[in-house]
Design brief:
EC number: 2.6.1.9
Protein name: Histidinol-phosphate aminotransferase
Strand content: 15-25%
Number of helices: 12
Organism: Liquorilactobacillus mali KCTC 3596 = DSM 20444
Largest sheet: 7 strands, mixed
Strand order of the largest sheet: 2-8-7-6-5-3-4
Number of domains: 2
CATH superfamily of the largest domain: Type I PLP-dependent aspartate aminotransferase-like (Major domain)
CATH topology of the largest domain: Aspartate Aminotransferase, domain 2
Structural class: alpha/beta
CATH architecture of the largest domain: 3-Layer(aba) Sandwich
CATH class of the largest domain: Alpha Beta
Order of helices and strands: HEHHEHEHEHEHEEEHHHEEHEEEH
Pfam family, one: Aminotran_1_2
GO molecular function: histidinol-phosphate transaminase activity; pyridoxal phosphate binding
Number of strands: 13
Oligomer: single chain
Shape: globular
Length: 369
Amino acid sequence: MKESTISLNLRKQVDDCRPYIAGETEASVLKKYGLDKVVKLGSNENPFGPYENAKRAMKESLKVINRYPEDDYVELTEVLAKVNNLDVTNVALGSGAGNVIETVARLLIDEGDEVLVAKPTYRLYREVSILMGAVIKNVPVKSDFTYDFEAMKENISDKTKLIWLCNPNNPTGVINDRREIERFIESVGDDVWIVLDEAYADFINEGQRPEIVEFLKNKKLIVIRTFSKFYGMAGARVGYIMAQAPVISAFDTITEPFCVNRTGLFAAKAALLEDQAQAYRVKEFILNERERMSRALNERGFTVIPSSSNFIFAKLPDGFYSAEICEQLMAKGVIIRECDAWDYPEYVRITVGKKEENDFLLSKLDEVI
């Protein structure tokens, strides 16, 4: 098609945004390299989900898929409120965590506001903030990849509107001590919002996860969670937000009506009420397998950063770079994530998969390193 000469007249902030580049898909790699099999360990997906009752509920949803999901919205919101010991007015739904993050940015950020973002962290925070006209202040993590909360506090000015936090962080999988996070939230003044993304928090070891919900009562705090990771429902696109009631009311005002599909709503409710035992059995397997994989990578000359999530962030042996290694692995039927986009070209991010998938990756690593 011939390119038009008409001025598009897009928002000026669009030019400053970088596209979010997801991990390679199995279909694209199969086609590109002419393979019969691909193991995908690049997008932090849960290979065991969705669980049995969630799958049953998905099938059940098809009986009423022709109807808008008003009642299902209410029912899932009520369940989430009860599970988190909140009032139903403190919870709202979104189409995955990404949709919630974008809506929160539209809700809070005015042009010229300063926004603090750790470096590295999930890239969507930066892009949605820039699109709203924010001025980004990057705050590097410490040498052990934990958040530098003192540096964050030093970067707060009278123009600072919000701070994005991700616990565990992505792409590193690293957490800060729970008391340190709680003290930081308590110490930030009432003029600054803190948005805490807990997409991977269910993988944190027992006793290490901060007690966040109590802070919702008297702090400018928003918590974002998703069913994509722990419950293995990445394709269902169900996320949610927890905040003070006036924030939830405003969130619901500006978000798209019925933005969560009925199948996802049915599955999420079943996962919460009926699949907990299976989900925690899978968690135990993933954490054990993560430690086994970490040891295997260390033995191969990698430097593995201790993770509290379902993925591993690791520095390659000296002389190797992630773009080259990831390309070579894809040609052999394995997808992992290069970290050039986070300015860590010597690091890779590896999702913990099933045992046979992880073993396949290790065998292919032995061929390229």
